[in-house]
Design goal:
about 210 residues, mainly alpha, two-stranded antiparallel sheet, two-stranded antiparallel ribbon, 8 helices, 4 strands, about 70% helix, about 5% strand, elongated
Length: about 210
Amino acid sequence: MHDNEAERRGTNFSNFIYWLDEVKCCETKLISGLDRVFITGTQPASQAISCFNEKVVLPQYLWYMVSGALGDIVQLIIDYYFLHSLLQINDPSLCWMGSFSASISVRHTTHRYLVFGDYVGGYWNSLLRMYGGYSIILVLSTAFNWVMTHYFSWSHYFGYFVTLFWTGIVNYFLLKFIWKLNLYSRCRTKQEDDDEINDEEAVQGLTAEELPKV
């Protein structure tokens, strides 16, 4: 029953995406490539989606702004409704640090589908790599927010949005660098190379009688 319902919803969503892909105005196809993003997942929106008979391709940074805005909304909800209102945490810097940390996994997903494409090295390796890269920004942005709100008496959310603005710009260049890194693959390749060298040395050390017969 539940499987049939999920399948039906999936079919309805797929049909809707395919319908959007075929929408025309004055014989001009408005948008193309949605299926490669939201159905097959083979490409991010920044590479797959084009407009007006595939003549207009939006720049990657614009897709990053869209993806970042989705993450910003999630972060603001966590900051305001959960940390500030529900848990009664009144320190702006603690709220910033907690909400930014909690929103990274959401940003990781939206960046995959809208901006940068497949997770290099798998989902968990990619997520850990993003947390590692963002840890630098987390420390710097929290320190900046603390100075601005404690020493310069900025209000909670004025400091929040100023911090959000500059971290968003810096994060784009950081993510472009770390997204394609695959340290796990490099470690495996080195290990495999070492194993292959050891195997060759072992074969060279065998006598003619010890070599396997063909």
